[in-house]
Fold this protein.
Amino acid sequence: MTNLILHLCLLAWLLPCALQDWRSRHVSNWLTLPAFVLAWPAALWQGGEDRLLFTFALFVGCWFAWQMKGMGAADGKIATALAALLPQAVLWGGGLLFLCFVGLRLRRQQQSVPAVVVLFLGALLSIVGSSANPI
């Protein structure tokens, strides 16, 4: 039951983030910053030091991608929050983003992908997948 509540809260938070990213390619700090700040104690509480280390490693990778203009700040904050609370969502979302980028490059298109929308889809897939196969 606790996982269901966590999953519903994550989706309820991610949906307005994804809609804003879809419409404007920008997500407001008031949506992303609280989740980013809460991600760190949540990582420690949810999965201990291993989850905290995973969250930190993902944050560092996002920071480097942001520095090289390959990722938006909101994308990194949202990915960090997901790494803390639902790491499989980051893996699904990252895989989907990779497929989007490969598809765009194969078609020789240089457009951007609304990454938060793809992270939302990754979260949705990971939640559906985990509820369909509870271990």
